[in-house]
Amino acid sequence: MWTDPLPEVRARIASRELETALGLARAAAATAEAEFGAKHDNTALARIALGEAYLASGRPAEAINELQHAIKTLSREGALARVAMTEALDALGLAHGARGGPRDARDAEKAFCRAIEYRERDLGEDHPAVGIALTRLARFYSEGHFEDARAEPLLRRAVGILRRGGPSEELAGALESYAQVLMDRGADDEAEPLLQECVTLARAESAAQPSALAEPLHALATLLARRGRFVQAETLLAEAMTLATEGGEPTQASVRYETDLADVYRQMNEPDKALAHYRHALEERRELEGPDSVDAAELATRIDELSRPRGHQFG
Q: Which end of the chain is more exposed for a tag (fewer CB within 10 A), N or C?
């Protein structure tokens, strides 16, 4: 009996069991082709699963090949085929973006835009799936090609759609991306309420996974520190650091938050507090990365500068 492999493969990818995901997808593709033929919908679904597994494993060229075959099979009228093809177009856009060849940017943009077009036609212009797709295209512009001017209106629309009924994690992602685009052009006053909203959303979900609140707190604290509101930034960074070390062991995130907290104390002209946090962060950075860590060396430099007598700290 045939079973769509996509849910299981995606679950394995999400848990970073990439070899298992690849094995499941390959087996499903071979079984589907033998049972149904190369041009059957079930074979196309299996090839989408294989394409996504290849993409997650850092093999975008192989992902593109599988996804293109699936899209060709599914490119006909019919709601079920259209849903699957639209998901394949999303993955194809990501695969082209990951490969990064001379023509890949154009092909990625084309895939993302087709996915948006189909979702708008089939689901309506205000459906949450459209908001998610708009966010994906905007990130392609802003993160991959530094085209913030094209990304900003897409993110504004995506946030509006997702606020009206999208999944909270997708809304938080769109808010964060929109805030980053605004900060890139110096519009910190517009970005701040978006990051505040991210924190509110994360607090609402924090009972299930408290550590997930740490990064939104850090993002907001970074902006507040940039705006000179150091006391508020200090409070948020301290909370983020506590959340990131809930397991009792240092993490890359907790060390980053503590380093930023030390930077805040330095800007507040509290060198003793800054030094204490820099030194603790240095110990944990060496524990995580070893004595030759580049980041540890940078921390040691900051400690050395701050330990010098006043008037000679940067001499």
A: N
24 token code pair = 């499941």
State the Cα torsion 153-155-161-167 to the nearest 10°: 180
Nearest Cα neighbor of 256 from 240, 269, 267 is: 240
> What are the tens digits of pLDDT across the range 45-80?
999 999 999 999 999 999 999 999 999 988 765 555
Q: What is the pTM of this model?
A: 0.85
Token digits for 12? Answer: 């394995």
